[in-house]
């Protein structure tokens, strides 16, 4: 007699994963482009409780209807003033108590860098940190953003908010987070002082969600379109869930959806065991 196979949904039910809170982050590199590649269908199948977007590259009026008015979700958007550039969003099955763009600095607000949704005991932020790869001016802008982001999150934490910061940080933290740390040691996104910033930020009371679950290398979230980098897994991990330490005991799983190819990034997924926090 063949051994009895337990249906996948029953094993998930047994492990409690069906009832977990699933928080996804995805730099879509243009939400209209990703929608044409199946983004709405993927959201419906994956069914995250909260999904945070970065790099919308669209005004709110241009966000595809299949996503903007998806049944079962409340949607909130912070597009950039410049068309076809930057922008963040949050879609949630649970209606937030409040949603705000957070930064008072005009330069950051104009680029649609942050969006914060407050729930019962947790606040979820969709964040798109600046890149410094185009030259010294943008690198300086990035470094000022990093300084101001620390000031902002300290204020939020002091007000009693327990933050889950999701999104594209545009920094690889450690050598295991980049395919070739030696050749990239002088590259924006892997500069020593940028990596040290991640260390110092985590020391303020946060954990890297992935590293709570796994210490395995070669888990990347972004690949250049050049030289078949995606197929060869020559990537960078620059997308994160940075989780308040008070919430770490609730983390039960983490997944990088490297098989999803709607963008040069892929979705990342954090699971928490306690939906009552929201």
Describe this structure in words.
- The chain has a 6-stranded mixed beta sheet.
- Strand 6 and strand 7 (123-128) form a beta hairpin.
- It has helices at residues 8-15, 31-36, 39-46, 65-68, 106-110, 136-158, 192-202, 209-213, and strands at residues 21-27, 50-54, 74-78, 88-92, 98-100, 114-118, 123-128, 163-168, 206-208, 239-244, 251-256, 268-272.
- The protein has 8 helices and 12 strands.
- With 278 residues, it is α+β, with helices and mostly antiparallel strands.
- The chain has one domain (20-273): Endonuclease/exonuclease/phosphatase (Deoxyribonuclease I, Chain A, 4-Layer Sandwich).
- The protein is globular.
Question: Layout of SSEs?
Answer:
Layout: H1 8-15, E1 21-27, H2 31-36, H3 39-46, E2 50-54, H4 65-68, E3 74-78, E4 88-92, E5 98-100, H5 106-110, E6 114-118, E7 123-128, H6 136-158, E8 163-168, H7 192-202, E9 206-208, H8 209-213, E10 239-244, E11 251-256, E12 268-272
Parallel strand pairs: 1-2, 7-8
Antiparallel strand pairs: 1-12, 2-4, 3-4, 5-6, 6-7, 8-10, 9-10, 11-12
Compact overview of the structure:
The chain has 278 residues and is α+β, with helices and mostly antiparallel strands. The protein has a single domain (20-273), classed as Endonuclease/exonuclease/phosphatase (Deoxyribonuclease I, Chain A), CATH 3.60.10.10. Helices cover 25% and strands 22% of the residues.
